[in-house]
């Protein structure tokens, strides 16, 4: 679609004339589409009117004959000329809701409680894109968004806007996302803002802005190590926990008692801490942060549904028998931290299993270190996978938590060509796995059936010149020392490319061997046996005929 310029009107008639042997009719605009004015010129979005319709209508374009036309509706903030697309349709109107428009205001940097000067424009295309134009007018209106998270908040709150170091101060002040920004609050009315923020990368910078005036309460703060932190602001002074904070549960209702917490897992998408845990009937627990910090409830709980946290009372498991629960901790709602308990029959696996070993820095074999490899079970179904470099003569085992680890039972049984190895594991027993070769491998582990596989993975040659033609790639060997991929393979006349992890969506290289490009063309091959060496970082390759 071509760029839309506001206030630009289509002048004159635009026509495309068919060739004599083409049945295409002559296209010309007899009359431009005209946007109709909105029912109101000033909107204030609230929770009460969020579901009300917001409909944009226009008179259709007249070509002098029936033509299939595609209309795209754009919304623009006149203050900064930022635009977002509302939708595309072949009809003569586009229906959304106030809630839809309210959330889009965030992309235009119109903040809650502030009135934005906006414009709606219309771009259209007809006859398979042979004729593009814009509507004969734009319509302007004002709108004030709201943040749905603040509807039931009656205390002062602030937003925590997070940036990468490369972002300039001017850009940071002009462009931040209120819909996804973490929030902290002055719940007690004593001038102290406090809350929790997850930082997904190392060395991120953040600032704190008043939730109503957007005055900067503190800025220039840096978090060296990614993780979950407690943030507080008092009289313009911003402080944060010294290290990332982990959350869990502790108590005589939990597997580890009061002395040690059972850790919860953090989900960065839902921003919730959760875990499936067996709790003992009639016993009690609290939520605990590491290091020592406790959240109980203000009053005695009368059911197992959950409640609001913040008091000193222990949480009692109200049940006639021990039960497995999905325990969830919500620290996202400013000043209204809460938890839920949901009884479950299926006990899911953990999301990650870690591979601590002597390949780590100083041979520490530390499962909590950043350089510890891990495999993931996205479906929490006891099936874990991950792809990474493993080194010859280095060893590791599989660490689930402080109570559960897995060791190898026997040895890895490699296929003759070295492309795949299989092994069995034991729970809380067995030996560490010691690699007898280096390379890039995919690790698959089944902790229910206690089996595992190590499969050579990474860059491969694929094409009608290769043994697997276009249906299956031939995986190359990886040398961690030189960071080069290599293979000796017999090729046919034809073409080939380099593909990553057997998946075109993960990347492929082609074109000139001395300057490979992403998605480049096929590499022409003359039949013969070749030693092929690929340097992914430099995007170069050599093919030496044997």
Automatic annotation (TrEMBL):
UniProt cross-references to Pfam families, sorted A to Z: SusE, SusF_SusE
Positions of the SusE outer membrane protein domain: 25-121
Outer membrane protein SusF/SusE-like C-terminal domain mapped to chain residues: 461-540
Domain of life of the native organism: Bacteria
Signal sequence interval, chain numbering: 1-23
Keywords from the named record: Signal
Name of the protein: SusE outer membrane protein domain-containing protein
Protein source organism: Bacteroides clarus YIT 12056
């Amino acid at each position: 679609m071509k760029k839309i310029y506001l206030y630009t009107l289509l002048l004159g008639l635009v026509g495309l004339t068919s060739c004599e042997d083409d049945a295409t009719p002559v296209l010309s605009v007899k009359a431009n589409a005209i946007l109709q004015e909105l029912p109101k010129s000033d909107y204030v979005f609230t929770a009460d009117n969020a579901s009300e319709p917001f409909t944009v209508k226009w008179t259709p374009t007249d070509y002098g004959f029936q033509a299939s036309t595609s209309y795209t509706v754009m919304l623009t903030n006149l203050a900064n000329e930022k635009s977002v697309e509302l939708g595309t349709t072949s009809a003569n109107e586009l229906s959304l809701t106030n809630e839809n428009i309210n959330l889009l205001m965030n992309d235009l940097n119109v903040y809650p409680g502030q009135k934005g000067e906006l414009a709606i424009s219309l771009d259209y295309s007809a006859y398979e894109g042979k004729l593009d134009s814009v509507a004969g007018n734009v319509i302007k209106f004002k709108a004030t968004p709201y943040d749905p998270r603040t509807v039931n908040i009656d205390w002062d709150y602030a937003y925590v806007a997070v940036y990468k170091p490369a972002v300039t101060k001017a850009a940071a002040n002009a462009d931040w996302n209120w819909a996804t920004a973490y929030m902290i609050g002055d719940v007690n009315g004593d001038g102290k803002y406090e809350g929790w923020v997850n930082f997904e990368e190392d060395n991120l910078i953040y600032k704190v802005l008043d939730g109503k005036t957007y005055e900067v309460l503190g800025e220039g703060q840096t978090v060296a190590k990614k993780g979950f932190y407690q943030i507080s602001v008092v009289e313009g002074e911003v402080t944060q926990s010294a290290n990332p904070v982990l959350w869990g549960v502790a108590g005589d209702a939990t597997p580890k008692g009061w002395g040690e917490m059972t850790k919860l897992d953090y989900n960065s998408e839902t921003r919730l801490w959760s875990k499936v845990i067996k709790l003992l009937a009639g016993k009690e627990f609290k939520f605990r942060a590491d290091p020592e910090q406790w959240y109980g409830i203000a009053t005695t709980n009368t059911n197992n549904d959950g409640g609001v946290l913040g008091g000193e009372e222990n949480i009692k498991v109200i049940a006639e028998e021990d039960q497995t629960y999905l325990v969830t901790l919500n620290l996202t709602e400013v000043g209204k931290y809460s938890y839920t308990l949901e009884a479950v029959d299926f006990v899911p696996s953990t999301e990650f299993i870690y591979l601590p070993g002597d390949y780590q820095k100083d041979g520490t074999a530390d499962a909590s270190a950043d350089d510890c490899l891990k495999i993931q079970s996205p479906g929490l179904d006891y099936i874990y996978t991950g792809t990474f470099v493993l080194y010859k003569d280095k060893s590791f085992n599989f660490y689930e938590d402080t109570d559960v680890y897995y060791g190898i039972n026997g040895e890895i049984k490699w296929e003759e060509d070295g492309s795949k190895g299989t092994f069995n594991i034991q729970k809380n027993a067995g030996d560490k796995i010691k690699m007898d070769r280096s390379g890039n491998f995919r690790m698959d582990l089944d902790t229910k059936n206690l089996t595992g596989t190590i499969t050579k993975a990474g860059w491969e040659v694929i094409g009608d010149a290769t043994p697997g033609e276009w249906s299956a790639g031939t995986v190359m060997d990886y040398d961690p020392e030189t960071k080069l991929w290599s293979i000796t393979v017999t090729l046919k006349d034809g073409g080939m490319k380099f593909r990553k992890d057997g998946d075109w969506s993960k990347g492929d290289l082609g074109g000139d061997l001395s300057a490979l490009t992403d998605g480049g063309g096929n590499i022409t091959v003359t039949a013969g046996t070749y030693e092929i060496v690929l340097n992914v970082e430099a995007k170069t390759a050599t093919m030496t005929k044997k």
